[in-house]
Structure formats: C-alpha cells, structure tokens
Specification:
The chain has helices spanning 18-22, 50-61, 77-81, 96-101, 111-116, 119-128, 148-161, 214-221, 242-245, 283-289, 312-325, 344-351, 364-375, 431-446; strands at 5-6, 9-10, 42-46, 65-70, 90-91, 133-135, 140-143, 165-168, 171-177, 180-186, 191-193, 196-199, 230-232, 236-238, 250-260, 265-275, 279-281, 300-305, 377-384, 392-394, 415-417. By secondary structure, it is α+β, with helices and mostly antiparallel strands. Strands 14-17-16-15-18-19 form a 6-stranded antiparallel barrel.
C-alpha cells in the first residue's frame, strides 16, 4: 500500500478493502486502506442515507471513482428507524402522476426523476439485491421481512458491488473555483479533490440521526436560496386541556377531518392516532399535518369521528341498547362497551350530562348530543411540535436553482442535490423515500 500526501491533500483510488463494507460500522480513516491515485477524477457523495447511498452506488455503476462520506458511525441511520423499524420504502401507485399527486410541495419538479427511476424501478433494484418486498394498505411497500436493517444491508450491497469507497467524516465546506466544484474539506483537515459533489445530507428532522442541516449551509455558501424550513409529518399541539388527560391512549379505528377557519375540509383519513401530553400524534395525524398552511396565521380544527363505522342513526340505536342494558346504573357506569375506559370521564365532562344521572332519566336530546359529540369530537390546533420531532423537513434548496433533469445546480457546475435537502416533500406512505431514491439515482446518473 502506498499513501501519498501532497500539500495536505489526501488522494483516494478504488481498491477498497471489501471487509470494511461488510461491517455495519464505519471506521475513521478507513480510506487509508486505499491505493491513492493523484490523477483520479472523483465523485464525492456527502451523506449515507437513502439518497446518498443510491446516488453513490449509481455513480459507481458507471465506473466512476466514488467516495461516500458519512458522519455517523453507521450508514442509513434514519432508514433504520423509519416505519417503526420496518421502513416503508415506496408506494405501489401505478402512474408517475399518482406519485406527483402525493407531493404537495413542488411535485412537478420531480417528473423527470420519477420517469428516470420510478417506484417500480426501485422495487426491481431491491429485488435484484436480494430484498423481497410486500405491499400493504394504501399501497405502502415494505421489506417482506419487516426489518429496516435489511433495506440498509441491500443498499450497502449496492455500494459494495459498485466499488464505492466509504469513510467516516464530517464535511466542513465544499470549495468551488470559478463556479466549478473543485474539492471538499473535512472538519479534521482532510481535503479531497473531486469533479462532482452530491449533497444528500437530509433535512433537520431527527437530528440524532445526523440530519442537522449541513446541506442547507453548503447550499447557502454556494449561492443557493434555501426556502423557510418548517416541520412536516409532525405531531400537533392542541388547545384543549382534556387531550392531555388521554395521554397514552391509542385509537386504532378512528376517522379524522382537518378543517380550516372557513370550515373547508382539507383532509380526511381513517386509521390510528395517539393522544399525548401536548396533543395528538400517530399515523393519520402526521399525514394531516402536511396539509396545514401557515399555522401562525390561520386557524385549523381536527374533528374526530370515534365511531366511523356507524351513522348517527346507527350510533343512537347502539347507545339506546347500551342504556337499556345498564338501565339501573348512573351515566358514568353506562359506557364501558362503547368507549375505552380512559376516555369515559372526558366524554362525560364534554357531554355536560351529570355523571350521577340515572341512565333511564337521560333525555332524548341529551342522548342526541352525546351522539354528535362522539361523531364530532373537535380539537383546535395550536402549533406543530418542534422540527426535531418531525419525520421530514419542509423547505430546502430552491428547486428553481436545480436542473430537474440532472439534479445539478444551475449556479455551480459539478454540484448536485438529492433527497430531503431539496424543497420537496410528500405525504406519508413511502413517497418521501421514493423522492430520496429517485433524486439520488438521477444525481448519480449525471454527476
């Protein structure tokens, strides 16, 4: 092995010790296992997440000398926790237009990326890498094993197959001369010359996974506009204090409607939600959050239907049967068959029916109000939870400054962007990861 240093610059070639790629952890200085070639034309990918690994592997498949720099000890750290550890890699919707329809922010910008590398291309690639997939409710695609680590391992296999070099390190800056990328400088002083850089650093959500906004800084320093950063797919705080009394209660078959201040329905969904000490969370709440506008200037309400399988008339009959069954009890003891135990005191308080009132004395109008309450339990949204609790970041590098056919910067030659760092975001269901994979592939194809 020959290691050459020239004016403080470390050069790298392709002969990576394969054993390094088969391990889960990255080792600082691992590049020193490489034969160094001072005349190499290198592509550097910053970030070892979904977009970064796909970009690096794709660039490597073209025979390029690719260096992937990841600041965490492991690759795909955020992937490992997505989908509650199952990793919803994409969605099986049939047409590109269907993918774009699920991307409310700058979806049309992604047309070329999806056309070049679609959801079915992604599934095919994973299958070729030995990862079997399955489709669940709403077209969500998961690994058949239900293990996100298998997704990460498949992507590591893709890197290994295409001779991608990997090192642990934190990038300090990207240097461009005459608006052409020339080198990358790491925090520890290492410098790598390159012909292209792909920024795939993620957003600012889940900072513990390494998404700390580095890519936005790189973009600004290179002259790019970064649109305002806000949380998306995030839990919501509500004004009603009674919500905190239900902390920890999960409702699995509830319907929600999101209404604006003009009573216009913005979103409707059915599924699972969770009450917390600050408000509400859970899959359908996270989805609803992406439909909110400026939460500081507009008012929004969530309306919960606790019994979506029943019409108001059917629910009224159901309550009458329960009241008949518990005719000799007080109201407080008449709802065990209808509601979770934790919810009963809250519903009683909101119904304004005395808990000690005998069931056989509850009037028809009181019963009707109870039905209406159960079908229209309303919460006023106060604000988002912090960005660090969001699944994704809304906002990012302005799409007007990125070539949609290549993901290359329109301002700096050789600078590419991929994944969450770009100002695009989607609803839940695998669409955000598809954005990461498609933009990563396109960047890797054109760098």
């Amino acid at each position: 092995m020959v290691i050459t240093r020239h004016h403080g610059i470390i050069w790298g070639g392709k002969n990576l010790d394969k054993k390094k790629l088969s391990t889960h952890k990255l080792v600082p200085g691992a590049l020193q296992k490489v034969n160094f070639l001072p005349d190499t034309k290198r592509v550097i990918v910053i970030g070892g997440g979904a977009a970064g690994m796909l970009a690096a592997g794709t660039a490597g498949s073209r025979g390029l000398d690719v260096l992937l720099i990841e600041k965490n000890n492991i690759l795909g750290r955020k992937l490992l926790i997505t989908g509650k550890g199952r990793c919803n890699i994409t969605n099986s919707v049939g047409e590109i237009g269907d993918l774009i329809a699920n991307i409310p922010v700058n979806g049309k910008f992604l047309y070329s990326a999806f056309h070049t590398f679609s959801n079915y291309d992604l599934i095919k690639l994973f299958n070729e890498l030995g990862l079997e997939t399955k489709v669940e409710r709403g077209g969500r695609v998961f690994p058949a094993s239900d293990r996100s680590v298998d997704v990460v391992n498949a992507l590591k296999k893709y890197l290994n197959k295409n001779n991608v070099q990997i090192i642990k390190g934190e990038v300090q800056k990207i240097v461009a001369q005459n608006n052409i990328v020339s080198k990358v400088v790491l925090q520890d002083g290492r410098i790598f010359l390159c012909q292209s850089v792909i920024v795939a650093t993620g957003g600012m959500s889940y900072p513990q996974t390494g998404s700390t906004g580095d890519g936005y800084r790189f973009a600004r320093e290179s002259g790019h506009t970064v649109t305002p950063l806000t949380p998306s797919l995030v839990p919501l705080e509500v004004k009603e204090r009674w919500a905190a009394e239900l902390q920890g209660l999960s409702l699995k078959n509830v319907a929600i409607s999101l209404l604006d201040e003009n009573n216009k329905e913005l979103y409707r969904d059915f599924g699972e939600m969770l009450f917390t000490h600050f408000g509400v969370s859970g899959p359908i709440i996270l989805s609803a959050s992406s439909y909110l506008g400026n939460i500081n200037k507009k008012k929004y309400r969530l309306v919960l239907d606790l019994k979506p399988a029943l019409s108001e008339e059917q629910l009224d009959l159901r309550i009458q049967r329960d009241f008949h069954k518990y005719a000799n009890r007080f109201f407080v003891n008449s709802l065990p068959d209808l509601l979770p135990k934790k919810m009963i005191p809250v519903i009683i308080k909101l119904s304004k029916i005395s808990p000690e009132k005998p069931v056989n004395q509850i009037s028809r109008s009181e019963r009707k109000k109870l039905v209406e309450l159960l079908k229209n339990l309303t919460l006023e949204i106060k604000k988002y939870r912090p960005l660090k609790e969001a699944i994704i970041t809304s906002g990012g590098v302005a799409v007007e400054e990125i070539n949609p056919y290549t993901m290359e910067s329109k301002l700096v030659k050789g600078l590419f962007f991929a994944g969450e760092v770009i100002d695009v975001n989607a609803y839940t269901g695998g669409f955000n990861l598809q954005i990461a994979f498609s933009t990563g592939y396109l960047a890797g194809l054109n760098c």
